Amino acid sequence: MLVNGRRINSCLTLAVMCEGDDITTIEGLAHGGQLHPLQQAFIEHDGFQCGYCTCGQICSAIGMLAEARAGMPSHVTADLTANTTLGAAEIRERMSGNICRCSAYPNIVAAIRSVAGDAA
Fold first, then answer.
1. Which of 4, 47, 65, 79 could link 108 by a cystine bridge, Cβ 3.0 to 4.6 Å?
2. Residue 102: which of 41, 42, 60, 59 has the closest Cα?
3. Can you give the pLDDT at residue 118?
4. Tally of domains in the chain
């Protein structure tokens, strides 16, 4: 989930800790009948199997893309002075805290990459 636009570990956050904050969950991403671009990309790239982690993967990816746009480096960012290029290794590192028990990682990375060109 996103709190004030930043991704957090919702399983480690008490609701009372977010009083007055802007909270976005997977349900708040679509507008009208139109899916968020990352939701659509996960469908197009088959970025899920059982679906258990999908909500967290998508919300985390939205936060991760915002971090990259803001110039925040990761542990694998090669050049800290240049704009971040979100290749597969960079996306895998930035999303490494999100676990998928079905191992849909290649498709998750493909879905994020398909959107990252527009968002990063």
1. 47
2. 42
3. 53
4. 1
The DSSP secondary-structure symbol of 24 reads E
Domain that holds residue 34: 2-119
Rounded Cα–Cα distance for residues 91 and 116 (Å):
9
Neighbours of 23 (CB within 10 A): 14
For residue range 14-70, list pLDDT tens digits in order. Answer: 999 999 999 999 999 999 989 999 999 999 999 999 999 999 999 999 999 999 999
Q: In sequence order, which ranges of the chain are alpha helices (DSSP H)?
A: 37-44, 54-69, 88-94, 105-119
Environment class of 93 (CB within 10 Å of its CB; exposed 0-12, middle 13-18, buried 19+): middle
In order of 25, 29, 40, 50, the CA distances from 5 in angstroms are 11, 12, 20, 26
CATH, residue 93 = 1.10.150.120
